[in-house]
Records
---
Amino acid sequence: MEKKKFRKIGILSSGGDAPGMSAVIKSVTCSAIARGVEVVGIIGGYAGLINEDIRPLSIMDVSGIIAQGGTYLKSARCNEFKYEEGMQKAIATCKKFDIDGIVAIGGDGTFRGATDLSIRGVPCIGIPGTIDNDITATDYTIGYDTAMNTIVRIGDQLRDTSESHARCCVMEVMGRDAGYIAIETGIALNAVGVALIETPFDKEALFEKIIKMRELGQRSFMVIVAEGLGTEFGEALTKEIEERTGVESRFVRPAHIVRGGTPTLRDRSLAGVMGDKAVDLLLNGVSDVVICSRKNQIVATDIKYALIVDRMFKNKLKDGDLDAFSAEELESMKALCEERRAYFNDMYDIMKTIGC
Ligand code: F6P
């Protein structure tokens, strides 16, 4: 088959925004223009494709955006795009604006959209942009590092006031159903306890440790709770800590504050590398893949594989989900899930040993 000639590609960001999305937009734009391909920005995610909100992007348009928080192309979660009618409108827009392919930045919902378009003849490549780091196929998502650094800054400030007042601070952190942010920031903030979905939470051990450390003279404590445990969990735990240990406690939820801010070096550099790789692959005829970082290598993973391995890890597989995969692929999926489980178990053990 003759290789498709790409003259113009589109970029969009969709789902929850993440610091570093603008850096990806810059990387994709510059990489495509350097290869002689025009670029258009699709405003507001898939909704922009349905509503024909399309703007040409030049190198000058994106030259100052690498350090911008949020996303230069705006974002939204688009319900209409989940249905055939919406998708057909999006495809018609691609035809009307001569968009030969799309780079879509976001999380699993974004990749589902990218795969839907790819199989209907609009080649798409996904780039993982979400603070949650909840794309099992990649070790890191863009935005994760920045969000964690913001949480660590907030946590240090909370520690200051907790120390003055001899209190325990329970902080709930975002991450949707994933505990990556919780466990990593828990270790970085010297939390005495971390509660997350991926490992059983040893509440009694937490109370015992707080009591012991208070007897030794420790004034302040930090406990991190993953948002996936539900809105009531953190507040209820705060009350229980106070009742069971006698340590005055406060509950804090920084929520969307951690989604903003200028991206860290790590997120900017990942954005640069992944954006360039996505353009390179797209122009070379590859589509329906997500760019992943695996053991310090940048690789392309089939979107279907990425979505299903996510479900496997979260124990949310549906009937028939695994039918399309070879024995070798199934093995690698299982191994990847084991790797992620081992990560959470190891990190939880470390936190329990060193956190105080
Ligand atoms: O996926 C990013 C995220 O910030 C999650 O951590 C959180 O659960 C969710 O988005 C919040 O969504 P919204 O911005 O729609 O309130």
---
Amino acid sequence: MALKLFNTLTRTIEEFVPLDPAGRAVGMYCCGPTVYDLAHIGNFRTFIFADLVRRYLEFRGYAVRHVMNVTDVDDKIIARVRAAGVSLAEFTRRHEAAFLEDLDVLGCRRPHHLPRATEHIEPMLDLIRRLIAHGLAYQSADGSVYFSIQQYIARGHRYGQLVRIRLEDLRAGERIRSDEYAKETAADFALWKSRAPEDGDVFWPSPWGEGRPGWHIECSAMSRQLLGETFDLHLGGEDLAFPHHEDEIAQSEGAMDPAAPRRFVQYWLHGAHLLVEGQKMAKSLGNFFTLRDLVARGYSGREIRYLLLAAHYREPFNFTFEGLQGARAALARIDECIGKLRDRAASQNAEPDPALIDEFTRALDGDLNASAGWAAVFEWIRRQNRRLSEESISPVEAAAGLAAWDRIDSVLGIGARAAAEAPPEIQALLAERQAARKNRDFTRADALRTALKDQGWLIEDTPAGPKLKRK
Ligand code: AMP
Ligand code: ZN
């Protein structure tokens, strides 16, 4: 079976075929964070989704080149920088570092490239030059440069590929300076924003005067530089489809050689929002949690990752604390079963058991259906637990199960819980209890068991010997 993905561009589920004639290399771009504050876990739902796509492609044998930009200049950043009285770089680097730490805590693989907008001004200017040369961009009286939707359409391009836009709703010729706007107000958008007094010292020289880039041009320029004029996958949260991604298409396809037009991106994937009580989790609504808020409440990165990965990426998903408790319980079930399989397998090595891998692959091949993937995992856990309790699983079978789990976990990325290591004094009590049992002093052995229990540790007698478990 082949991997199939829902492509926002065609609104259908399509088989994934990379551009690489050898069928191996895959270019993937995901719009990254705007580094003006801590990202919230709604943002991280999208970044974990990108991590899932990348990990699954790697599991399927593709060599992925994963690019995620860092938006380190925009209206919000400039306002914050002025309020904080620090330099743009000082301000944005601090937030970028926090973002990368959070990605690590959530078990996301680091993108191969994390280009910063402020370090790619030249490729942006180059793209704007091309657009002007193709008659698709113009400078307005205030010095800003705008993309002309009218000219774009006049040259046979289509504006409104990702979302349907009625041509009569287009306010072509009217200009929008802001980077965010609704479909209903679609009009010429800013590629280069002329320097305004409130920008302070945040500006760059350009052939059109001092100013700074619009948001959309950043992604067109950086993806082109790192992945080429055309590449395989472009991801982001569903709110980015319009205008951000639509404008990226217009800029990137508009800048190509008109004699050799190509499709900018082959597959557009959009992740659904994380909701709170039915509403999008958003900074502006104040209904958000950062990763650090949740860690401070005692939740781990893997519990949060699990929760954010539980639903299908195209399903809106409601964040609740009950959900997090559920994640904790689900992970405990996995950990317990994997721990028992480890004990049983001892140091056996084995080929991965294909049953779990096949079922999981079938689920994820169907447009990355992670919820079906988890269902396959839990069904497998149930079977393993039954066989463990019947003591009908051989060490080689246990090792084959573990090897399969390791393959699956290369996609899920939840790892195993760090062994809850008992401190030395507790280990010493356990050793004493073992000695007492050996001497058939069961009264003393029981007393030691109770002493351990009072200190929060349970003894579990397993075929591989006694083990300590947190109460
Ligand atoms: P931003 O830093 O605001 O540009 O957002 C970074 C990413 O997070 C974008 O891909 C957004 O689409 C995504 N995003 C924002 N809010 C949510 C949400 N509530 N659920 C899922 N993704 C979101
Ligand atoms: Zn982008």
